[in-house]
Amino acid sequence: MELKLTLVGAFIYAAMLLYVVAFVAMSLGRKKMGRRLFIAGFVLALVSIASRWVEVGRLPMQSMFEVFLLMGAFVYPVSWFCRSVMRIESELIDPLIGVFLLFPAAFIFDSTGGKLPPALQYWLFAPHVAVYLLGYLLMFKGGVVATGQIFTPAGLEKARRREKDTYRLVRVGFPFITLGLILGAWWGKIAWGSYWNWDPKEMWSLAMWLSFAWYFHFRIATRRRFRRINSLVVIISCLIILCTLLWANLSRLFEGLHSYAS
Predict the structure, then answer these.
(1) SS3 assignment for 175-220
(2) Tens-place pLDDT, residues 89-137
(3) Which phi-psi region, left, alpha or beta, contains residue 198 (left: φ > 0; alpha: ψ -120 to 50)?
(4) Quick check: 102 and 12 in contact, CB under 8 A?
């Protein structure tokens, strides 16, 4: 555990506090107040990102500290999109997702900044990371809804709706992780001379993509008869995302071309 006794850290802790209070307000039926607090937390998280950008003098997308900070901030826009555009009513849990994502940045990962290594000094850096993070956020939300579906008694309309909402979230998130994989291959060709280098991060990213692709195949092949299994596959796929984010970058069991992203 490492407290961030910096301006960036102060904004992160304030954002987390507002997210928690937003969750409590929504839980008590005060949706409007909860949404306003959620927005306020999002604004503070944005300020922390801007402060980090000024601090390191580059896009804050390199380290695990910065990745989780970005995801923790942009959980609100994803929540708004799901509620207002997709009409998925599961916003209650979204502030807690934000707290979960900000927690590693706030207490676990080192916030020491540094210059981008040569491989990252290319215009594909920002879009490659951004589309993956958006995909991850949508998939994580899908995983949370899928968890709710598993613990909802079978046969209830709520269980069927949650399974369908999970599918809709994964369907929207899948093109983002697909684009991330394509941009990564393109970047790999430019940076290392090959579209595919059998790097541990590349392999975990492919495993993640295949797990969600198999989810679509299984759901269609079984004509949605096994709703809980469908949801379980999404949850397992979300765990693979965590392995892609954390284990592939931090384990050091297998050194790879992405070993700088720690």
Answers:
(1) HHHHHHHHHHHHHHHHHHCCCCCCCHHHHHHHHHHHHHHHHHHHHH
(2) 889 999 999 999 999 999 988 888 777 776 667 777 889 999 999 999 9
(3) left
(4) yes
CA dist., res. 57 & res. 55, Å (int): 6
Beta-carbon count within 10 A of 10 CB: 15
pLDDT 10s digits, 146-184: 999 998 887 788 889 999 999 999 999 999 999 999 998
User: Taking Cα atoms as reference points, which of 111, 11, 120, 27 lies closest to residue 67?
Assistant: 111
Q: Domain residues of the chain, as ranges? A: 1-115, 118-262
Residue type for position 39: I
Residue 217 to residue 120: CA distance in whole angstroms? 35
Backbone angles phi, psi at 74, to 5 degrees: -85, 10
